[in-house]
Design goal:
By secondary structure, the chain is of the alpha+beta class. It contains two helices and six strands.
């Protein structure tokens, strides 16, 4: 796991996560539902989803791919989303960690609250 980084230099805060994938960029398919703002295949996808703007960047990293995700979002959702994206990107990268979502969330709350304020808990109906 690579910890998410909080970015506060834009109009909204953002969380940045990075993973290394074994496949080269040409074979990675990111298909999402939302309003696509920018596409530079096969390296970049930027789109909106609700109040968020998500940016997926792919670049060659040896024989594999470096995936960088930047999620620009409402301040209160930063810790929750960082913990969720950690889990999703770990699965995509083929790595598993014993940390439950709640443990990651607690780490991000402690890191992010001093900079951007109170963090929202899990979404309604979350059972993880």
């Amino acid at each position: 796991m690579t910890d998410a980084t909080l970015l506060t230099d834009g109009s909204l805060p953002a969380v940045r996560l990075e993973r290394t994938l074994v496949d080269p960029p040409e074979v990675i398919d990111i298909t999402l539902t939302g309003e696509v703002l920018e596409v530079d295949e096969p390296r970049l996808l930027v789109y909106t989803w609700g109040d968020e703007t998500l940016r997926f960047e792919l670049s060659a990293d040896g024989a594999g791919t470096r995936l960088v995700l930047v999620d620009e979002l409402p301040a209160g959702a930063a810790a929750r989303n960082a913990a969720g994206w950690d889990r999703c990107l770990d699965s995509l990268a083929g790595t598993t960690t014993p940390d439950p979502w709640s443990a990651r969330f607690d780490v991000y709350v402690a890191a992010f609250e001093p900079a951007i304020g109170p963090q929202e808990g899990p979404p309604p109906g979350y059972k993880g």
